[in-house]
Write a structure and sequence with these properties.
- By secondary structure, the chain is of the alpha/beta class.
- It has two domains: 126 residues, Rossmann fold, CATH 3.40.50; 68 residues, Arc Repressor Mutant, subunit A (Orthogonal Bundle).
- It has a five-stranded parallel β-sheet, with helices on both faces.
- The longest helix is centred in the last third of the chain and has 17 residues.
Length: 223
């Protein structure tokens, strides 16, 4: 049976908030969701805990929480506060170990997702948490490119380059990327250098970290 498009348009959108103290990544996440997940209404993007909870838009239906924050507020306290306010919580983390997952799950999160997941998978998990049938989603399976860019301008990256870019764009340092990948520092550095060079060859600047993160968001490598 086909879906009624008018019903799709009238379906209530999930009010979403994101808390991540990596501001460039926060901006890229927000841009991706705004362009590709119209069944979610991103009403709050916060880089600090106080900014989140003091916002007039809090609580929301769902909150994406970064596991690690520079602020001395534990993941348990953040999750429980959100839940007490009526919001479901999904933790997005560049740290992914049994201990980290156990802490988050015990605090009451609805799901724990690695930042290495493609954003499409993250949003599908969010739909599952919110009880949304993916068939009713207005998700458009495309990735925004810079003005004037064409699909062919997306460079072809190796598996190692892709993983290094994804981890680096999530906010990890080159040293941390090397640790996560189980390689030497110089190897991780080489992967990222090659990524920058490949983007430069297709006339898409990526020499600065902020530029590289934006390229990762545009091409679906955002972690």
């Amino acid at each position: 049976m086909s879906l009624d498009s008018s019903e799709d348009r009238s379906a209530p959108r999930v009010r979403l908030a994101i808390l991540d103290d990596h501001e460039v990544l926060l901006d890229s996440l927000s841009s991706w969701i705004g362009a590709n997940a119209p069944d979610f209404d991103l009403v709050l993007s916060a880089s600090t805990w106080l900014q989140l909870v003091h916002s007039d838009n809090f609580p929301t239906d769902l909150v994406f929480l970064d596991f690690q924050l520079k602020e001395p507020v534990s993941i348990e306290a953040r999750v429980r506060t959100c839940r007490a306010a009526g919001a479901k919580v999904i933790v997005l983390s560049s740290l992914d170990s049994p201990e980290v997952r156990e802490r988050a799950m015990k605090a009451g999160v609805a799901d724990f997702l690695s930042k290495t997941l493609p954003m499409r998978d993250v949003m599908d998990a969010a739909r599952k948490v919110m009880g949304i049938d993916p068939r009713h989603s207005l998700l458009r399976d495309w990735r925004p490119l810079p003005a004037g860019a064409v699909a062919q301008s997306r460079p072809k990256l190796s598996a190692g380059e892709t993983e290094a870019l994804s981890l680096y764009a999530s906010g990890l340092s080159t040293n941390q990327v090397a640790e996560q990948m189980g390689v030497q520092y110089e190897t991780a550095k080489t992967y990222l250098r090659r990524v920058r060079e490949k983007y430069a060859k297709v006339n898409r600047p990526a020499s600065k970290k902020a530029e590289l993160i934006r390229r990762a968001a545009e091409d679906g490598y955002l972690s």
